[in-house]
Amino acid sequence: MDLFQVPGRLTTLFGYERSLNYPNGHRNVAFAQRGVRTLPLADGEQAQQGKVKVNSGSVLYPYLRRNRGIAFSHTSHTNMGTDWRDNDPELEPLVEIYQGMRTSAEYEGAPKAPTKDNPATHQGGFKPEGFVWNAWAKGYKLGVQASSDHISTHISYSCVISEEGSREGLMDAMRRRHVYAATDNIILDVRMQDGEGEYLQGDAFTASGTPRLRVKVIGTRPIKDIRVIKDNRFVYSRQPDLPEAEFVFTDTETQAGQSYYYVRLRQKDGQIAWSSPLWVTYK
Questions:
Q1: Which of 159, 182, 205 is the last residue of a domain?
Q2: CB environment 200-234: b (16+ within 10 A), e (fewer)
Q3: Is 204 found in the same domain as 146?
Q4: Which of 48, 59, 190, 202 has its CA 20 to 30 A from that of 179?
């Protein structure tokens, strides 16, 4: 990857795909430094007749911790996916919510996502347990990214919000979940203000008052709709019909405990962007 590194313009990371069938699933693995050997599959880790003897987390997480790496589930809702049996928010901070080669993993029937009754949408198989909404419902703190996989370049963007563009800077931003996913070159700025504090998409915090969700979008075509999703429920929407939009949303129906919020926009040409959630604990 050093061959493709262009300081100040293109930063490359070291990584590979670690491939297991459902339910352990495929994961993309990334490092800031070269020289980390790939991790062999453990005995019993590969599924036989849909069952495994060893969960990948017990094998993968110590390896990632030793080598300062991270991983993220890849096509989680397919035969290459997972039922979310493992989770470590420090080592798996992100999930692939969209893959250009296949479909969206947001939830069944979401834009660009498969449905049970339409086999034509089952690119790579159909495992509804692996939809991302199920992971969030379990309390997993996962930011989102998009990947191209094969023959699908320029329709999958992982947008990393980093203070500086070094390999270490990008890895740190991904660990913080300061990332959003898109199918076009869309700017999606989502943050929360709570008193004097401001939090970026991907952050988790305890509210001191009533936080305000601030959204700013610069699209590539007119925007069909922008939706705010709270705890896997649609709670607010706008239809700008313009390439750019900006608004503030305040949740007036909060309860004690933790809630998460994310934003999804769709353009009239079908292109989409998804923010990473913000997790808010209300007292």
A1: 182
A2: bbbbbeebeeebebebebebeeebbbbebbbeeee
A3: no
A4: 59
